[in-house]
């Protein structure tokens, strides 16, 4: 069986277009089409339903692609195990990172990793949590660094690195701002009910933080107006800092500002910073080393925020 042929068919299936697949594979469309036709003749059936704008798998094609992915995963796991056995310290590691701070983390930890594994090629990909989970399930990511709660986890493996508090940020111009606190000390505890008529900046639908926020609102039985939906946690903080609206944000995005007041929420929401990988796959020594270095990074980062424990609740 030609492993390169497996990669070709998987790429066509992922792109739903043979022209785009050929571009990604750096081969001509004609050459890729010949590979496909040869395979379909060998199998005695078509793998794709063709159209000008969209190709999609036939039932036989779906079976072939699923098996092809399993074969390539077995190959990768086998090579990784042998590399570890021989202590070669080489290969490739594809890593999923949260947009924004994921790259900041990578920039900090990669020099440490490189000193130990200079021959391991790293491919970092910035992807939202849900996209990382999908790519992990498909075997396209070796490991992914994600932030989520237990109800958002898939059937794959999750290794917790640390937990992070989710807090409320309020502009200093808000009439309750004087009851709030600042980072580095206990934060007053408050119910979101006090802010049910205030505008909020929130993450876009589908993000893990938005799902957590929506659950908090459901628990309180409120629906504050949404002023802005964004894909950036940094933007949430900026909107509060600019005195535009309130927001529920991860504490690591909060900054000590005299024009922002902070509260702990009654539910004490936290999410987990974790690393995930495909259930049943082999975790290489290089991947384990990367996880260990990243764990140290997050523990050190969060240790500076440990003073923000809730104080007495505000009635």
UniProtKB/TrEMBL annotation:
Domain HTH lysR-type residue range list: 1-58
Family, per entry: Belongs to the LysR transcriptional regulatory family.
Pfam families linked to this entry: HTH_1, LysR_substrate
Full protein name: LysR family transcriptional regulator
UniProt entry keywords in alphabetical sequence: DNA-binding, Transcription, Transcription regulation
Gene3D superfamilies on file: 3.40.190.290, Winged helix-like DNA-binding domain superfamily/Winged helix DNA-binding domain (1.10.10.10)
Cellular component annotations (GO), alphabetically ordered: protein-DNA complex
InterPro entries named among the record's database cross-references: LysR_HTH_N, LysR_subst-bd, WH-like_DNA-bd_sf, WH_DNA-bd_sf
Keyword Membrane: no
Molecular-function GO terms, alphabetical: DNA binding; DNA-binding transcription factor activity
Keyword set includes tRNA processing: no
């Amino acid at each position: 069986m030609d492993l390169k042929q497996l990669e070709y068919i998987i790429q066509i299936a992922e792109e739903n277009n043979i022209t785009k697949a050929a571009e990604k594979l750096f081969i001509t469309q004609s050459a890729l089409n010949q590979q496909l036709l040869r395979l379909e003749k060998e199998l005695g059936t078509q793998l794709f339903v063709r159209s000008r704008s969209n190709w999609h798998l036939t039932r036989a094609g779906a079976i072939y692609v699923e098996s092809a992915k399993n074969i390539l995963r077995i190959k990768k796991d086998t090579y990784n195990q042998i590399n570890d056995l021989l202590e070669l310290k080489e290969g490739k590691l594809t890593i999923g990172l949260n947009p924004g701070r994921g790259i900041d983390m990578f920039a900090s930890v990669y020099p440490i990793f490189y000193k130990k594994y200079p021959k391991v090629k790293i491919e970092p990909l910035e992807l939202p949590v849900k996209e990382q989970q999908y790519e992990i399930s498909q075997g396209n990511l070796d490991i992914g660094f994600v932030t989520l709660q237990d109800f958002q986890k898939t059937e794959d493996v999750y290794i917790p690195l640390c937990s992070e508090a989710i807090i409320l940020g309020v502009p200093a111009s808000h009439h309750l701002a004087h009851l709030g606190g600042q980072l580095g000390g206990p934060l007053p505890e408050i119910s979101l009910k006090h802010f049910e008529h205030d505008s909020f900046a929130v993450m876009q639908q589908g993000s893990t933080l938005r799902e957590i926020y929506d659950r908090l609102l459901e628990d309180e039985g409120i629906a504050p107006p949404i002023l802005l939906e964004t894909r950036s946690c940094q933007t949430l903080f900026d909107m509060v800092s600019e005195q535009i609206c309130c927001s529920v944000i991860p504490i690591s995005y909060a900054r000590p500002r005299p024009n922002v007041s902070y509260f702990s929420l009654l539910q004490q929401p936290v999410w987990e910073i974790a690393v995930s990988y495909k259930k049943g796959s082999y975790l290489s020594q290089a991947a384990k080393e990367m996880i260990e270095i990243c764990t140290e990074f997050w523990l050190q980062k969060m240790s500076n925020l440990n003073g923000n424990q809730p104080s007495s609740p505000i009635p």
